[in-house]
Amino acid sequence: MQKALAPEISTWPDENPQLIGSRCAACGATTFPVQQWCPRCSGGEMTEVLLPRRGTLVAWTTQGFPPGAPYAGPAGKDFVPFGVGLVQLDDIIRVEGRLTENDPAKLQFGQEVELTMVPLTTDEEGAEIMTFAFQPIDKGA
């Protein structure tokens, strides 16, 4: 069995999941995750929008140590460094998220990436906890 770490932020388990953001009716600003109030104009007319699945890699690093709370993944000797990237989704928004690639030498500015879901940990009942990540797209895809 699989469960989403944060089920409210994506359409997973759809076959082609999308992140769920919000857009301000007053100024057009887009946020992720969904916000009740616009961070740009403080307007309260936010509507949910599905964000593009593909984007381009703007910046990246390797997370070499377990993040602080509320991190729910492996720690101590079970921790495996993972890539983190800033991804530009069309001209809409930049989203920070895990990368499926943790070797910086295999990443490049402007590289096309696509949203996917990856296992993070296992809960007390044995369910695999899934989170979103961006994976590099093969040039032939």
Automatic annotation (TrEMBL):
<dbReference type="InterPro" id="IPR052513">
    <property type="entry name" value="Thioester_dehydratase-like"/>
</dbReference>
<feature type="domain" description="ChsH2 rubredoxin-like zinc ribbon">
    <location>
        <begin position="17"/>
        <end position="46"/>
    </location>
</feature>
<dbReference type="InterPro" id="IPR012340">
    <property type="entry name" value="NA-bd_OB-fold"/>
</dbReference>
<protein>
    <submittedName>
        <fullName>DNA-binding protein</fullName>
    </submittedName>
</protein>
<dbReference type="InterPro" id="IPR022002">
    <property type="entry name" value="ChsH2_Znr"/>
</dbReference>
<dbReference type="Pfam" id="PF01796">
    <property type="entry name" value="OB_ChsH2_C"/>
</dbReference>
<dbReference type="GO" id="GO:0003677">
    <property type="term" value="F:DNA binding"/>
</dbReference>
<feature type="domain" description="ChsH2 C-terminal OB-fold">
    <location>
        <begin position="49"/>
        <end position="117"/>
    </location>
</feature>
<keyword id="KW-0238">DNA-binding</keyword>
<dbReference type="Pfam" id="PF12172">
    <property type="entry name" value="zf-ChsH2"/>
</dbReference>
<dbReference type="InterPro" id="IPR002878">
    <property type="entry name" value="ChsH2_C"/>
</dbReference>
